[in-house]
Amino acid sequence: MNILVTGGAGYIGSHTCVQLLDAGHKVVIFDNFCNSHSNVISRIEKIAGKKVKLYVGDIRDKSVLERIFCENQIDAVIHFAGLKSVSESVKSPLIYYDNNVMGAVALCLAMQKFNVRRLIFSSSATVYGTAAEAPYDESMPTGSVCNPYGRTKYFIEEILKDIFAADPAWYITILRYFNPIGAHENALLGEDPCGIPNNIMPYISQVAAKKLPLLTVFGNDYNTHDGTCVRDYIHVVDLANGHLKALEKMVHNNGGFNIYNLGTGKGYSVLELIRAFEKVSGQKINYKIGPRRAGDLPIVFADTKKAEKDLGFKAKFGIEKMCTDTWNWQKNN
Ligand code: NAD
Ligand code: UFG
Question: What is the mean pLDDT of the chain?
Answer without folding.
Answer: 97
